[in-house]
Amino acid sequence: MNVKQIENWMMVPTTGNTISLFGDVGGTRIQTSPIKFGKPGEVQTQNSVYKLGEKSPGLWELKLAILRRSQMDELIDAGAL
């Protein structure tokens, strides 16, 4: 599986009641496919594993808690958030 470092990241709600990562990979701003699962310091999507670097500041965590509470709780329990 492809492993990438993502910086200045945030998690965003996406269609189908899912969550994706949005951040910088190799100097390019990307949005990933939906997150399948997470563990401390990384998350896995359908195609890649993302090592989590610096988290983007902002209110995105509050928005995520409102729109995707159960998925956010799973990522918190797994140590990814």
Compact overview of the structure:
This protein is an alpha+beta fold. Helices cover 22% and strands 48% of the residues.
**Main β-sheet, spatial strand arrangement:** 3-2-1-6-5-4
Spell the H/E element sequence.
EEEEEEHH
> Which percent range fits the helix content?
10-25%
Quick check: average pLDDT?
94
- Tell me the Rg in angstroms: 11 Å
Low-confidence stretches: none
Please tell me the total number of domains: 1
The count of helical stretches stands at 2
How would you portray this structure in words?
Helix 1 (60-67) packs across helix 2 (69-78). The chain has one domain. It has 81 residues and is α+β, with helices and mostly antiparallel strands. It is globular, with a radius of gyration of 11 Å. Strand 2 and strand 3 (28-31) form a beta hairpin. The chain has two helices and six strands.
